[in-house]
């Protein structure tokens, strides 16, 4: 964190936070409510604005041997979905999240809010070239599983004995054909009711948590 801007009201409500910031050497600057409104993207800002470094890291420091669970988002456009998946990945203990292709910027305000703090936990990297992202996962010893509603293999048929990278596609179009041809295995979530599909964030939660729980059970 480089600097913290706070309104008078927020300073009174969050004295401990300001003390921690000052002890860490972070400058704390007072601002008016009007200034807070201008700096924030929300309708009702909390009165605290921080200037921080970008959270994404170079791929070579993220996708390397030793990673056990990675989530890859391909061309995911909605920042709320991306942030929610990052939160899911964090909760499931994933090592990293890769935003590949034309995926949304993880620093987008809506993405940051949807991640609810999880943006700072798993390693985040952005790789424009989707094929390069998949190759980097494979080179790190990760088996790539592509979530696809029309796959032949169902989620409950998959074993999770090796490190895995889950690959999820665009909200409207799913994974491109070339990606499905590249991943090690395409996997679908079985539908037991009458719903045709699940949205991206829900599908990611089901797949990633199934993987995480199976891996932990196998390790005990």
UniProtKB/TrEMBL annotation:
<dbReference type="GO" id="GO:0008173">
    <property type="term" value="F:RNA methyltransferase activity"/>
</dbReference>
<dbReference type="InterPro" id="IPR029026">
    <property type="entry name" value="tRNA_m1G_MTases_N"/>
</dbReference>
<keyword id="KW-0489">Methyltransferase</keyword>
<comment type="similarity">
    <text>Belongs to the class IV-like SAM-binding methyltransferase superfamily. RNA methyltransferase TrmH family.</text>
</comment>
<feature type="domain" description="RNA 2-O ribose methyltransferase substrate binding">
    <location>
        <begin position="3"/>
        <end position="53"/>
    </location>
</feature>
<dbReference type="InterPro" id="IPR013123">
    <property type="entry name" value="SpoU_subst-bd"/>
</dbReference>
<dbReference type="InterPro" id="IPR051259">
    <property type="entry name" value="rRNA_Methyltransferase"/>
</dbReference>
<dbReference type="GO" id="GO:0006396">
    <property type="term" value="P:RNA processing"/>
</dbReference>
<dbReference type="Pfam" id="PF08032">
    <property type="entry name" value="SpoU_sub_bind"/>
</dbReference>
<dbReference type="GO" id="GO:0003723">
    <property type="term" value="F:RNA binding"/>
</dbReference>
<dbReference type="Pfam" id="PF00588">
    <property type="entry name" value="SpoU_methylase"/>
</dbReference>
<dbReference type="InterPro" id="IPR029028">
    <property type="entry name" value="Alpha/beta_knot_MTases"/>
</dbReference>
<dbReference type="InterPro" id="IPR029064">
    <property type="entry name" value="Ribosomal_eL30-like_sf"/>
</dbReference>
<feature type="domain" description="tRNA/rRNA methyltransferase SpoU type">
    <location>
        <begin position="69"/>
        <end position="209"/>
    </location>
</feature>
<dbReference type="InterPro" id="IPR001537">
    <property type="entry name" value="SpoU_MeTrfase"/>
</dbReference>
<protein>
    <submittedName>
        <fullName>RNA methyltransferase, TrmH family</fullName>
    </submittedName>
</protein>
<keyword id="KW-0808">Transferase</keyword>
<dbReference type="GO" id="GO:0005737">
    <property type="term" value="C:cytoplasm"/>
</dbReference>
<dbReference type="GO" id="GO:0032259">
    <property type="term" value="P:methylation"/>
</dbReference>
């Amino acid at each position: 964190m480089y600097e913290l801007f706070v309104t008078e009201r927020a300073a009174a409500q969050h004295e401990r936070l300001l003390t921690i910031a000052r002890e860490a050497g972070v400058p704390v600057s007072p601002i008016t409510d009007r200034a807070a409104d201008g700096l924030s993207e929300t309708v009702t800002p909390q009165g605290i604005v921080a200037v921080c470094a970008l959270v994404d890291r170079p791929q070579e420091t993220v996708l390397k041997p030793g990673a056990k669970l990675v989530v890859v988002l391909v061309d995911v456009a909605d920042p709320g979905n991306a942030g929610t998946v990052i939160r899911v990945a964090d909760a499931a203990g994933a090592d990293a999240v890769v935003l590949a292709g034309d995926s949304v910027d993880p620093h987008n305000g809506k993405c940051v809010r949807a991640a609810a703090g999880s943006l700072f936990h798993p390693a985040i990297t952005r790789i424009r070239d989707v094929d390069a992202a998949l190759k980097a996962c494979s080179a790190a010893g990760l088996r790539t599983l592509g979530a696809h509603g029309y796959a032949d293999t169902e989620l409950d048929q998959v074993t999770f004995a090796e490190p895995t990278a889950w690959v999820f596609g665009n909200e409207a179009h799913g994974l491109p054909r070339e990606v499905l041809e590249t991943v090690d295995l395409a996997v679908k979530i079985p539908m037991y009711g009458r719903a045709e599909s699940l949205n991206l964030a829900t599908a990611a939660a089901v797949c990633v948590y199934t993987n995480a729980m199976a891996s932990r059970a196998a390790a005990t």
